[in-house]
Amino acid sequence: MEIEIPHSLGQDEVRRRLADNSHRIGESIPGGMAEIETSWPSENRMAMAISAMGQVLHGHIDVEETRVVFHMDLPQALGFLRPMIEGAIRDQGERMLEPPRD
After folding, report:
1. 3-state SS string over 13-82?
2. Where are the domains of the chain?
């Protein structure tokens, strides 16, 4: 699944905000029981592994000039959750682009 979020921040600022806020990804997972692992395999791609409820979701975020694109591999067994996951990714993605909280 792919979710696009437009921005006007510039790639450097988006990368900084994603790096500063990536720990917040788990806030969207019900129960707050998610473990998040992130890495930067290239300058404009943040890879993610999200472990929750016995499942591991793999994906990545591509930082482009005017948008970020969240790519998430959703197992067939979780296909029925797609609308909820898309909404959570869109909501949390927009929050991740906000300035970091103190």
Report:
1. HHHHHHHHHHHHHHHHCHHHCCEEEEEEEECCEEEEEEEECCEEEEEEEEECCCEEEEEEECCHHHHHHH
2. 2-96
**Mind listing the pLDDT tens digit for each residue in 55-69?**
788 999 999 999 999
Q: Does position 40 have pLDDT exceeding 60, yes or no? A: yes
Q: What is the pTM of this model?
A: 0.81
The residues, ordered by sequence, that sit 6+ positions from 91 with a Cβ below 8 Å of its Cβ are: 28
> H or E element: which one contains 89?
helix 82-96
Instruction: Compute the chain's Rg from CA coordinates.
Output: 13
Q: In CATH, what number does 2-96 get?
A: 3.30.310
Q: Which residue has the higher pLDDT, 40 or 89?
A: 40
